[in-house]
Amino acid sequence: MLSKLCVGLAQTASRPLEVRYLMRHASLLAHPQTHHLRLQPRLRLRLRGIVCREDHCCAGQKTVPSREEHIATLKGEEFDVLVIGGGAVGCGCAVDAACRGLKTALVEADDFASGVSSRSSKLIDGVGSYLATLLDKKDLNQLYIMVQMMNERATMLKIAPHLTRVQPMLIPSYSLLGAPLTWLALKIYDFISSASNVRASHFLSKEKTLYEFPLLKTKGLRGGIVYYDGQMDDARMCIALVMTAVCLGASVANHTELVEMVPQDGCCRVVGVKDKIADETFYIQARAVINATGSSTDFIRKMDEETTAPILLPSVGTHVTLPRYFGSSTYGLLSPSKDKKDPTIVMVPFENHTLLGLREVELDDMESPQNPPPDPEDVDCLLDAARERMAPCVELERFHVLSAWTGMRPTVSCPSGKREDEEEGDRSAVSTYMLEVSEGGLITLAGGRWSTYRVMAAHAVDLAIEICDLCDDHITTSWTDDLELDGAQGYCCMLPLELVQDYGVPMDVAQHISDSYGYNGHAVLSQAPDRKGRLHPNFPYIEAEVQYAVRNEYACTLVDIIARRLRVAFVDAAATLHMLPKILKVMVEEKEWQEEQATQELLKAQEFLVRQMGLGSIVRPKSMCPNKQETTVKATPEGCCCNIPKRKECRSFSSIGGTSVRSVASLASSFTAHPPPVSKLSALPWAFSSGITHSSVESTSSSEPQPITRKKGKTDQKQDLILKFWRKKFIF
Ligand SMILES: Cc1cc2nc3c(=O)[nH]c(=O)nc-3n(C[C@H](O)[C@H](O)[C@H](O)COP(=O)(O)OP(=O)(O)OC[C@H]3O[C@@H](n4cnc5c(N)ncnc54)[C@H](O)[C@@H]3O)c2cc1C
Q1: Residue 447 Cβ < 6 Å to ligand 1
Q2: What is the residue extent of each domain of the chain?
Q3: Using 50, 70 and 90 to split pLDDT, how confident is the model at 419?
Q4: Residue 554 backbone class (left: φ over 0; alpha: ψ -120 to 50; beta: rest)
Q5: Model pLDDT for residues 211-227, shown as the tens digit of each residue
Q6: Fold annotation for 67-117+236-312+414-419+426-482
Q7: Which atom of ligand 1 is nearest to the CA of 257?
Q8: Which of 89, 109, 391, 579 is most buried by a 10 A CB count?
Q9: ipTM of the complex
């Protein structure tokens, strides 16, 4: 029987290597205890890769269990490991546990990667902060961390080649002494990383530096030092992790929040979760529970042990997206801070735009773990710092910002073991990550960075196996360093060309599909042959992606699509507003939404853009700029100089809150000169572009979680003002 199956499987394999692999692992096919055919996880994933390719050859279909099927499994079965939180760390834990053969479940309160894991600087950081701490505090421990990080960077580039790439970073040098010192530090970095380093750092002359970054300040510039880091699409990476866990047999559910921990004696734990889509609460049984909830860490710890002292040291980081011409198409820019007030500036190319970060503000207290709205003051501070690094003739104003967002960094201190009321004095942050086991057996995993997710996950699952006695004959050690993520199997750099030839899509669309889905790009395009239309003329996103996200990636809401499946909300908030009707149309067909639900979804998406992406308060809707004026870059005797034409109406927008309100309103009114009745909205896609109606605004604004209270309250007031104005203006 076994040998027959093996020959059958070997015939399915498309490459000789796979045939050899299958034959060699044939003995693993039978589970020693049950004598039932039970595929070892490693083989199961391999086979799935083959099956996907075979499917593509035949019908191009790719199917995954539906969300409802996952929920049914979560309700009815007992799990070895339950992971709470679907960010980088939680999804990493689910992949790690599932790949070892543990029966794994994961629940996420909102959408996968809806926390800070979709809001990072997108760097697979090998050097930055660690090198700085090493030099600042002479902490040699940082050396060890750096080596580990560099190994991780190499691993991420290997296991997800479609979502990651080597990113050259340029550090401009303005001082005679600074250049050799930075160069020396980077050479030490090259030496330590040796095996895992992607490329050696080198010096760039002043001319070449300006060639790459024509807008840089030329006065005093000595040249630039280039080192190599990694870059990733963070949210899509998280989705790839979820889908890999699903391939390995894990049960996952987004929009399912942990609401209760039922005290139990012994190792098995029961937790209550709320399915927000079906609006029902049910219980999940698991032998080990891992708390990987990022900025909600303390809320879950308190649910487990009410008197426990908090460990989170929250801070909020702000990023903005700018047009591509403010950066370089190849190089990223890292400009260290000069003093405490001056933020370190990072500029990286992302989705054909330039991402500018990072302004970080520590929070005094945290009333809610939700990401706060971007604060115009923080954005201005970021723009000021960027402007200071650019030639005096460069005009960089708030109206250039296409999207602005914040992310809450889940930095933690070491748990003191004391109760909350006994805690005293300052807590200092742990430099890497923290693992804690509570008296009730809850494993908390917090801190770290995106790029440490795999190491953190392996560590936590090792601990879970040890303390919950999960060891079994078929449980393996972690092998995620060798596990290609979903979409990576079969991927090669020629994939865009393959997509152009097979499906007749334009090259920019093919490149985007290949970069976002890897080999699954075939499934995206073949599943929806009649949905190749663009969602916006200026972007490569197409309708087929929406269908794929709903059917294959558990997208449940309009926000899930614009923020985590397509990255357009982070790239251009105003363009996203224009895309909403088309996305909604596909979702209505796929999800069979009734008119009322469609309207609700649309308004939640619009509110997300206003509250979370700075639309209106920071980002100026496009229709306010009727005369498109491009930046011109010209050569001057001192180097290159940039001239961006001034626009008076834009300035007033950035400086006066009232003007910004008027701008948004005028955009909206341009779409709703004669608003149709609500019942006709679904038939008129353009109506959704503004789409604000009396009933929908009322209901969505009350259901959305309130922004957290920060030291500064101006943003919230301004956002509320905008919403109030919208409401007043569009009560029909
Ligand atoms: C501004 C900024 C820039 C950064 N840049 C980088 C970078 O360039 N490179 C890098 O490596 N790292 C970077 N980081 C760090 C990195 O983003 C984070 O360390 C990492 O994403 C944390 O992932 P996480 O899974 O712990 O948290 P999160 O992504 O926040 O995930 C936690 C999840 O738990 C869910 N959750 C909460 N409560 C519940 C509940 N009750 N039930 C179920 N689910 C729940 C949340 O909805 C959330 O999705 C950056 C961080 C910030 C703030």
Answers
A1: no
A2: 2-58, 67-117+236-312+414-419+426-482, 150-231+313-384+396-409, 538-729
A3: low
A4: left
A5: 989 899 999 898 898 98
A6: FAD/NAD(P)-binding domain (3.50.50)
A7: 42
A8: 89
A9: 0.99
